[in-house]
Write a structure and sequence with these properties.
This protein is of the alpha+beta class and 73 residues long. The chain has helices at residues 25-45, 52-65; strands at 2-9, 12-19.
């Protein structure tokens, strides 16, 4: 997959096209071991009518649960 990125060169940003891996071993391991459990945690903790601050707290708490996880490939 190709993606346009910005490179900081001096005072300006220079756009360039970079190759991005989306289906590699690391990406799949991250999705299975961190992404899906964290997403399920957020889905369970966020409800209609919650304020922005409360939603951010739920996301941060779910992220802390998976911080430092070593990927098994």
């Amino acid at each position: 997959m190709l993606k346009v990125k910005l490179l900081a060169s001096g005072r300006s940003l220079t756009p360039y096209i970079a190759r991005v891996v989306t289906g590699g071993r690391v990406q799949k391991a991250f999705a299975e071991q961190i992404g899906k459990p964290a997403g399920a945690c957020v889905r369970a903790g966020v409800h209609a009518g919650m304020g922005q601050g409360a939603i951010r707290k739920v996301v941060a708490d779910c992220g802390k649960a998976h911080a430092g996880t070593k990927l098994r490939m």
